[in-house]
TrEMBL record:
Coiled coil: none annotated. This is PAS domain S-box-containing protein/diguanylate cyclase (GGDEF) domain-containing protein. The chain holds residues 357 to 649 of 655 of the full protein. The lineage of its organism: Bacteria, Pseudomonadati, Pseudomonadota, Gammaproteobacteria, Oceanospirillales. It comes from Saccharospirillum salsuginis. GO terms for molecular function: catalytic activity. It comes from the Bacteria. Keywords: Membrane, Transmembrane, Transmembrane helix. Residues 36-291 form the EAL domain.
């Protein structure tokens, strides 16, 4: 129909301009709401048609000098539009409620992958998924995790599961905190993503049911040359560690950043310098090469 056609044209133009953003051309092509409608209806099919996949990005422990985890990042391979990144559809999925189905799919797929890696043997890696506020509030996240593991014949003790949440979710109230405590008691490792960009009060940080902080990559920009960022990143590392948390730096792209993070005792690093997000087969090969398979 006309809407789908407009969206096709829009996406084609966006891609031919080398930009993955619809904002670039929206004014002349399709309105914002038309665009969202097109994404929404395509996303409904995406779940049924197997158009989604998970990519995996390694996390490297600086002390142990080995890969200790992987983060699952969703990708959408649309038959006409090509590869879409989460920034183009997660927000719409959240607003339309499609995130619940998508989130369940992510957890199921991650568990299936864990089961495959578990059968390969070797050291168990932590596999982290990103969760939306919705998933923490609707209350069945733990049940989804438990039943997924069951389906894939994994014991909770055989896997290490990580959940990336954002600072702002912690503001949502006692129910969310209760959910997080249950997840943690079950064995999930909770990380605050993009730490420093939200509004969590430092006063409460010590009481939160959280295992790790992931420094927002904006604070790693131009380190060590940007002295403000240098000071902030160093402070986050030392504060977080004093509170007994694991500190992760993401978006690490340069050897200068890596040297800074090692100097300051950061625990784990993630970024293009270590490895880009990659399809499952490639992640499997990486683990084999590391003696983890
Ligand atoms: P995030 O959780 O902060 O993930 C890190 C993002 O930074 C990823 O973008 C990753 O590809 C990118 N990245 C990693 N290393 C580097 C680097 O060295 N340099 C630069 N410039 N970028 C790097 P991606 O995959 O496009 O994901 C964007 C966001 O979408 C994620 O941010 C996360 O918030 C969300 N997301 C991804 N997958 C899911 C999912 O399954 N569920 C939900 N709810 N959100 C997801
Ligand atoms: Ca994340
Ligand atoms: Ca992040």
């Amino acid at each position: 129909d006309a809407l789908a056609q407009a969206a096709d044209t829009a996406m084609y133009r966006a891609k031919s301009h080398g930009r993955n953003s619809y904002e670039f051309f929206t004014p002349e092509m399709v309105t914002h709401s038309q665009w969202r409608l097109a994404i929404e209806s395509a996303l409904r099919h995406a779940l049924e048609q197997n158009e989604l996949s998970l990519y995996y990005q390694p996390l490297y422990n600086l002390n142990r000098r080995e890969i200790v985890g992987l983060e699952a990042l969703v990708r959408w391979h649309h038959p006409q539009w090509g590869l879409l990144l989460p920034d183009q559809f997660i927000e719409i999925a959240e607003e339309t409620g499609l995130i619940d189905g998508l989130g369940d799919w992510v957890i199921n797929t991650a568990c299936a992958q864990l089961a495959e890696w578990h059968r390969m043997g070797g050291k168990p890696l932590r596999l982290s998924v990103n969760v939306s506020g919705h998933q923490l509030i609707n209350g069945h996240l733990l049940e989804t995790l438990q039943s997924s593991l069951l389906v894939h014949e994994l014991e909770p003790s055989e896997v290490r599961f990580g959940l990336d949440i954002t600072e702002n979710m912690l503001q949502a109230g006692d129910d969310v905190l209760k959910t997080l405590r249950r997840l943690r008691a079950w064995g999930a490792n909770i990380t605050i993503d993009d730490f420093g960009s939200g509004y969590s009060s430092l006063r409460h940080l010590k009481d939160l049911p959280v295992d790790a902080l992931k420094i927002d990559p904006v604070f790693l920009k131009d380190i060590p040359f940007d002295t403000d960022n240098y000071a902030i990143a160093a402070a986050i590392i030392s504060m977080g560690q004093s509170l007994g948390m694991n500190i992760i730096a993401e978006g690490v792209e340069t050897t200068e950043q890596l040297a800074f993070l090692e100097l300051h005792g950061c625990d784990e690093v993630q970024g293009y310098l270590i490895g880009k997000p990659m399809p499952a087969e490639q992640a499997t090969r990486l683990m084999r090469d590391n003696g983890q398979g």
